[in-house]
Every structure is written in structure tokens, then in C-alpha cells.
């Protein structure tokens, strides 16, 4: 049975993930070495060493999540603690958190810092997927099947927005929306949700407009004319980096903009360095790898017969796709900048760890789908054709015998 499980893993997904992470580690070193020396006064490989540690921890977390049966996450014994952890972490950061880039989002652990809102992303995916999967029999009963999970989503988004981190709050809301749209509820309930959301959201934005629409945030909407805008320094230098790259790039390690011109070169703007050094070929590799993961996740969701597994795959795929779109759209001037890291590429421990755990869950769901397709369906067919078999009827270890 163990051999059958190993054969059922989607190794193409694992290989692409591994290549993307290794590529990201290389680019973190290339994009951060000048920043490390000039601005932080440390060795040139400082951020590289930390990201390597993050990747090792993330790989361990990925393996554990990939081996752990995803169906166990649906149990209340698992859901209740993670929901409590999400609220505890967000409340704790509001009390003792450190402010970075005008947002009190980090908890200092000494040698490391963690961002609780990053972990809330995967918790929201698991919680909403589990609850809506359990409510499939009455998913169209608005008060009973639709509303209760939304209370949790609104509360965590509200707490994150109070940090204030509207970018992360918006991403989590969009992830939740993707799961809701895929949950199976009818259009009537979806329109009702949209109407209720508008009724609450519009007055709230009017009341808090001075806090939400600050001069700094409004300056980000000048992305169409960054060279003329007062707050267009980052985007202007990103455009210069994109223009320098051309087809083949200047060569690995040869970026000019990372020499103090482009802020946050190893985090939010790492794609600009990739374009400048590796040109179109570097961009195509990243886009292909991220696109492959997102589309593979959607394919797994369509093939999965279990509602919980299908919603998990949708949640993970949407998280990666949304973050990639916001990051790439920001540095290319398609949408305003929001400070969202590029998945698997940008420097950041909390973000990478959450992404690796999420990928482990997706790989586990994919494994179950392949296992059922290759072996379980065949075993059931053998039973119906009266072949004497002694097979495993489920991954839980129960056996079915055909006695004659």
C-alpha cells in the first residue's frame, strides 16, 4: 500500500515547486547583497543565509503536510485550535507587535520575527473549506449554510485591517471569496451576500475615509504616471530595471538598479531584478512555474470527488494566483503597489513557510485524487466483477473482502 501511495504523488508539481524555490533563493542572494552591505552593515550573504534557513524549515513543513492525510483537517479537534490560534496571534500582534512599513504586523522572537497574518491565510483556507464542505447538504439555506463561516472571515480581515495592513486583509478576503464562489451555493445567495457586503462596506469606508485614504496610500494610485508622481520613486526605478533587461538581460548578478536605486529589491521588487539580470527568459520561467502550479491546483480541484479536498485545492491555487497577480501587476504598473511578495521568490520567512505548508496540502489532495483514480476505482471494479480480492477500501486502513 505504501508503494501505491508513493506512486500516486504528482512529482511534476513537486519538481516545479523545487525549481521555483531554488531559483528564488539564488535571486534573493543576487538582489540583496548590496542592500545587506550598504544599508544593514552585514555580510553580503546575510539575507541569503536567512532565506536558506527559511527554505529548509519550509521544506520540512511541506513534507509533513504532503504526508499528512488532508481529511483529518476537517475534524473539530483540528479546526477549533487553529481558529483560536488565528485570533490569538492577531490580538497579540496588536498588543506587542512591531511596526514595519507603518503596519504593526510583526512579533519579534529575538533572532526571528513572524507575521501572524500570513499564517491566517492558510487557516482561512482550511476553515472555510471544511465548514462549507460539511454544509453541502444545506448550502443554499442562507442563515444556516452561508452566513456562519463569513463571520470568521470578516473578523480576521477586520483585525488585520486594523494593523493597518489592507493589502493582506484584501488578499485573505479574495481567497475566502474564491472558496465561497466554489462552494456550490446558488446565484441568489451570492447576490444576497454582495448586497449585504455593499450595505456594510460603503458606510464604513465613508466613516473611516481619513484613515483609509491617507496621502501615502492615495499616492500609489499615480501608478500610470510614476515619473511625474511625487510617490513614484519605487515604480520608476522598477520600470528602469525592466527596460534594462531586454531579451537576455544584463547577466546574473549584474543588475544596476539593486545598487541602492531600487528599494526592497529582494522582497516586493525582486521580479524587477530578475528581468534586469535574466531578461525575458527569467520572466518566462517564473510565469510558467507559477502558472503551472495554479492551473494544476484547479485541475486537482475539478478531479477531486471530495468537496473538502476540492475547496482546499481552490483555496491554495487562488492564494498563489492572487499574490502573484498583485505583485506582478504592481511592478508593471497595471495596478497600484501594495507591498505583496512574489510567491516562492521574494525574501520572507513567514510567507515562504505558509506557502510551503499550503503546497504540501495541495500535493496531498492531489495524491488522494491519483490514488483513487489508479487503485481504488480498479479495486471497486474488481469487486463488481466478482474477482476474489483482498484490498484496502480506503486510506483509513479498512479492508473489504469478497468471500465466495
TrEMBL record:
InterPro entries given in the database record: Cell_cycle_FtsW-rel_CS (IPR018365), FtsW/RodA (IPR001182)
Biological process, per Gene Ontology: cell division; peptidoglycan biosynthetic process; regulation of cell shape
Claim: Transmembrane helix is one of the keywords in the record: yes
Any one GO MF annotation of this record: peptidoglycan glycosyltransferase activity
GO CC term, one of those recorded: cell division site
Topology of this chain in the membrane: Multi-pass membrane protein
Region of interest (Disordered), residue spans: 382-404
Pfam families noted in UniProt: FTSW_RODA_SPOVE (PF01098)
UniProt EC number: 2.4.99.28
UniProt catalytic activity: [GlcNAc-(1->4)-Mur2Ac(oyl-L-Ala-gamma-D-Glu-L-Lys-D-Ala-D-Ala)](n)-di-trans,octa-cis-undecaprenyl diphosphate + beta-D-GlcNAc-(1->4)-Mur2Ac(oyl-L-Ala-gamma-D-Glu-L-Lys-D-Ala-D-Ala)-di-trans,octa-cis-undecaprenyl diphosphate = [GlcNAc-(1->4)-Mur2Ac(oyl-L-Ala-gamma-D-Glu-L-Lys-D-Ala-D-Ala)](n+1)-di-trans,octa-cis-undecaprenyl diphosphate + di-trans,octa-cis-undecaprenyl diphosphate + H(+)
Transmembrane segments: 12-32, 52-70, 82-101, 113-133, 145-162, 168-185, 190-208, 269-295, 307-326, 346-369
Subcellular location: Membrane
Cell cycle in keyword set: yes
Alphabetical UniProt keywords: Cell cycle, Cell division, Cell shape, Glycosyltransferase, Membrane, Peptidoglycan synthesis, Transferase, Transmembrane, Transmembrane helix
Function text: Peptidoglycan polymerase that is essential for cell division.
Family from the record: Belongs to the SEDS family. FtsW subfamily.
Annotated protein name in UniProt: Probable peptidoglycan glycosyltransferase FtsW
Organism: Cytobacillus kochii
Amino acid at each position: 500500500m505504501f508503494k501505491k501511495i508513493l506512486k500516486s504523488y504528482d512529482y511534476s508539481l513537486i519538481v516545479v515547486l523545487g525549481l521555483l524555490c531554488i531559483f528564488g533563493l539564488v535571486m534573493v542572494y543576487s538582489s540583496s547583497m548590496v542592500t545587506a552591505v550598504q544599508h544593514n552593515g552585514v555580510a553580503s550573504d546575510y539575507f541569503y543565509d536567512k532565506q536558506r534557513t527559511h527554505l529548509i524549515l519550509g521544506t520540512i513543513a511541506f513534507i509533513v503536510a504532503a504526508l499528512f492525510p488532508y481529511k483529518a483537517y476537517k475534524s473539530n479537534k483540528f479546526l477549533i485550535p487553529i481558529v483560536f490560534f488565528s485570533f490569538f496571534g492577531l490580538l497579540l500582534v496588536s498588543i506587542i507587535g512591531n511596526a514595519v512599513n507603518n503596519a504593526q504586523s510583526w512579533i519579534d522572537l529575538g533572532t526571528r520575527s513572524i507575521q501572524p497574518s500570513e499564517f491566517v491565510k492558510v487557516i482561512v483556507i482550511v476553515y472555510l473549506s471544511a465548514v462549507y464542505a460539511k454544509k453541502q447538504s444545506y448550502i443554499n439555506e442562507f442563515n444556516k449554510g452561508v452566513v456562519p463561516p463569513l463571520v470568521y472571515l470578516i473578523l480576521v480581515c477586520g483585525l488585520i485591517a486594523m494593523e493597518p495592513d489592507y493589502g493582506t486583509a484584501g488578499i485573505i478576503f479574495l481567497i475566502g471569496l474564491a472558496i465561497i464562489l466554489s462552494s456550490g451555493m446558488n446565484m441568489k445567495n451570492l447576490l444576497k451576500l454582495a448586497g449585504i457586503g455593499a450595505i456594510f462596506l460603503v458606510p464604513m469606508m465613508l466613516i473611516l475615509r481619513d484613515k483609509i485614504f491617507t496621502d501615502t496610500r492615495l499616492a500609489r494610485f499615480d501608478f500610470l504616471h510614476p515619473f511625474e508622481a511625487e510617490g513614484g520613486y519605487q515604480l520608476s526605478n522598477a520600470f528602469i530595471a525592466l527596460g534594462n533587461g531586454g531579451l537576455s538581460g544584463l547577466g546574473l548578478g549584474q543588475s544596476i538598479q539593486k545598487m541602492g536605486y531600487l528599494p526592497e529589491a529582494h522582497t516586493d521588487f525582486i521580479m524587477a531584478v530578475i528581468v534586469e539580470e535574466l531578461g525575458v527568459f527569467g520572466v518566462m520561467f517564473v510565469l510558467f512555474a507559477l502558472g503551472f502550479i495554479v492551473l494544476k491546483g484547479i485541475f486537482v480541484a475539478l478531479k477531486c470527488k471530495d468537496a473538502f479536498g476540492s475547496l482546499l485545492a481552490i483555496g491554495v491555487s487562488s492564494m498563489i494566483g492572487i499574490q502573484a497577480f498583485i505583485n506582478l501587476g504592481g511592478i508593471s504598473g497595471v495596478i497600484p503597489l501594495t507591498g505583496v511578495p512574489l510567491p516562492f521568490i521574494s525574501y520572507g520567512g513567514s510567507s515562504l513557510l505558509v506557502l510551503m505548508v499550503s503546497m504540501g496540502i495541495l500535493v496531498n489532495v492531489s495524491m488522494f485524487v491519483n490514488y483513487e483514480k489508479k487503485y481504488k476505482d480498479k479495486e471497486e471494479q474488481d469487486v463488481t466483477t466478482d474477482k476474489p480480492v483482498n484490498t484496502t477500501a480506503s486510506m483509513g486502513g479498512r479492508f473489504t473482502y469478497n468471500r465466495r
